[in-house]
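Example protein was shown:

_____
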Amino acid sequence: MTKRGRIMSEFLSAVAVFPTALFSAALVVVVAFWLLVLFGAVEHDMFDSDAEAAGAGSTGLGGVPITVAVSLLVTIAWFTCLAGALPLRGSGLTGVPYAATACAILLAAVFLSWHATLRLVRVLATLFPDEPGPSRHDFVGLTCTIRTGRVDGRFGQAEVAAPDGSTAVVQVRQAAHESETLALGATGLLYAYDEDGEFFWVSPSSPYGELPGIDSPAAA
């Protein structure tokens, strides 16, 4: 057997026997899960609600999807265990000394992976903010500026400014019973969002706000 073949044989033996085998099986599950996520078969945060109910946040693993935390824990434990198992297999130990050392490697791998995962989770938590992302429903109740020549029940666009200062051009529609029509440059109020049509219902609005007499020339 060549040197490369011996190295590969030792590696596979270390992966397939105690203590690394415990984490090897878990690592296979982790890899299979993320492949399913990659192909869109499952969501990466599908277990978060169950984890919250079980109190996962109190363990220090909160702030990121539980699948990310568990994947880190398993991967780090597998590498740590493998790093200890390879020299153990070449040490010549047998019987009780071998078993005792293997158990010590297992416990060390669990301890080190746990603390390493806690540190990594704290760093990664900044990439998974608790606040939900912006939603189109956030625009409901805001005023907008019409950007098309007309607005009716089938056509229209408007520019709206979000609370964070960013702007977006959205599809708008005006109900037929509105007496005042909206044209280019007019100010409208987005008062509802249609999920099916993916547009906002808009009505005429004063450019000085929704409360008459506040910050308008008439109040002066």
